[in-house]
Request: fold
Amino acid sequence: MPKPFGLRRRFVVAAAMVLVATAGFTSSVSWSTGAHADDIASAPLAGVTGVGIHNTYADTTDYPYLADALDTGASLIELDTWADFVTGEWKVSHDNPLGNNNNCVQATSSANLYTGSANKDLNSCLDDIKIWMQAHPTHGPVMVKIEMKDGFLGGLNATEFDSYVKAHLGSTLYSPANLLTKSDGTLYPNLDAAAQADNWPTYGSLEGKVIVEMIPGTVEQAVEPSSTWVDVVYAQHLLDLYNSGNIANAAVFPSVLGAQSGDPRARYSNTALRPWFVVFDGDAATWVNDGNTQWYDTNHYLAVVTDAENVSPALSDTAPSLADAQARVSELAADGASFVSTDWNTAPANAVLSEVLTRG
Reply:
């Protein structure tokens, strides 16, 4: 059962954000050292709940630049990609496989995160994120959720995607190899063993870091057999890298879509792949009604829940009251969510984007 809200600790970053106007910047973020901040900082990543923005790249009205979305203090942002095997890049768009439609710019430094033309490829989106994180080194970790609309195509495979992500996120990336590595330098046998041992670093030690989650796209789910979806392909890729001694090359955590009672990894017929999933992604309404959400928390898995507004009683998609938005995030945190995805882009409800709560 969810714990009463009054018994849980709330760390509201929004109340302590310091916005400092500087040349070429919209804002700079500082994090509170107030009540319970130490508890959040010392908790493992799997012990906290953050809030994020659905289809962050597409809301060019509220966030003309991707950096504007990061300025909210959000813990999760989302990008949708299309494989362009002609150019060797991934497009970022909701429904155009041949072009870009987004708020990413071709920034090369923090001074031009908020300038220049938008609608760039994934490489620029990742560059924008890296540059922003480097300019805000005390910002808490950010989950970058990537929906790969049409999966891997042609030469744009898992190996190429690893290289692509690593090249553009650089030292800001927290990778599967980081989770696998014990304090003595040896490795756990798989990601599941590492997660169950709660080998996640503390939230505070992940300041300035980016974690990339990959989910199967709507197009590949509609037209391709599940054996070729990116979750299966990338889990096999992780297993192969581990067995060949090259797990350090991996950049991404594949996600299991769909919250359900019991272990949803049972859907994978190849049992060797199941221990390589420790991130789960599902609908918030299903999550609340599932009856087994604490299983994810108990095993220290990361759980991303989407469309928080649709949990009964339903809230406004974009502009609930601040009290209702905070209560909904608290409810989902108590139910064991790690990241709560919302479309709350209207003040004052968007103040919840910077909240970080104790999970469970």
Remarks:
- Residues 122-135 form the longest helix (14 residues).
